[in-house]
Amino acid sequence: MTTILRHPRPGFMWDWWAVDAHGFLVQFSCGPAPEHLLVHVDRVDAAAAWAEENRPAWFSRAPSSLHAFSCDGELPVYTRNSVPDSPLRLSDAPAAVAEVAALVELHKAVGDAWTVYLDEGWV
To answer: What is the superkingdom listed in this entry's lineage (predicted)?
Structure first.
């Protein structure tokens, strides 16, 4: 089944998270998200604000502890922008972020993939 994607904040950057099949936290930004996240948009916004304030290292140019992907534009293609030295597990994530990440579970581990296509579901 196809995952329907929408951009919850058109014209603005928007960060959201998922947990992959290995339990690692994955950060997505600047693009569409699974439609069911829209009903949780305030919680996702609050989690992003909390993370930026309390975990600036997650967003620095140095090697990240997250699997991080970004999307330019509205196409459902996310490209990896950093490779974690030691990925952050969902169980180690702060509650503000873990609660939101648990709303989107990736069916497979991110692994060594450099691009994630969301047009036919999570791959």
So the answer is: Bacteria
